[in-house]
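Cross-check.
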Amino acid sequence: MTMHIPDQTGRTAIITGGSSGIGKAAAAALAAKGARVILAVRDQTRGRAAAAEMGGLTESRPLDLGSLASVREFARTVNGPVDYLINNAGTMTDTLRHTTDGFESQLGVNHLGHFALTNLLLTQITRRVITVSSTNYRSAHIDFEDLQWQRRPYRPFGAYGQTKLANLLFTRELQRRLNRAGSPILATAAHPGWAATGFTMTTGRRLLDHALALGTRLLAQSPEGGARPTLLATIGDVPGASFSGPSRFGVRGPAALEELSGEALDDAAAQKLWEVSEHLTHVKFPLPTA
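Predicted model, tokenized:
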């Protein structure tokens, strides 16, 4: 896992959700190469245990992406340059739930929390912002008229897919803004393919959920395998706004670049989502335009 990663001594990485799954695997790989790694996690018991297991310059700090106050407090504690911000954490719920700030929970945690965190830290980031998405974006749609599922019947899988599409549109618009600002920072995205990480997919249909769980036990790759695309997006020779994933049918295997399709390439939607996200979080892009 670490053999193709160059020495990371002197570099700092922040990884949300870094106490389990692919986040933990990516964090461990960077820590093993000498990076200072900050695990930004809600459960500090698990976070401290993961940091102790990784050793080196690894630490755990509290972050609840479902609370903008927590996001702001976490950002306030980060001093000095950050080489890599890896927006890895995610959630999926089978019923309509809301964050502390009243956002639909999947949108709030998977997109808005990371949107706010990225912009609050952007003046300290020196190399890359990496956001973990999913191939579920392909069947998703951003419904700007009902972003929070206030009028539509709630569909867990639909809500999840919307946030994964939002991750890619966020990456696209972030790179556009970084380019306009003359910044050398790259915004990249990745997906783990089919990986056994403990993350539960909920479609709202019991038989399909059982089939997915069975398929995960039989076919999914390890968290270490699922973390390869994240690591490629973090330290690999990839362009801005790129999308990394497993090379074998997008499910498993070595990491490689993938072509995006459909609404993930919609620049107008990306700009609109950014504006809506700024309005909802009260956090704006902090770099001046060149």
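Residues 12-281 form a domain with the Rossmann fold fold (CATH 3.40.50.720). The chain has a mean pLDDT of 92. Passed to J.P. for a second look.
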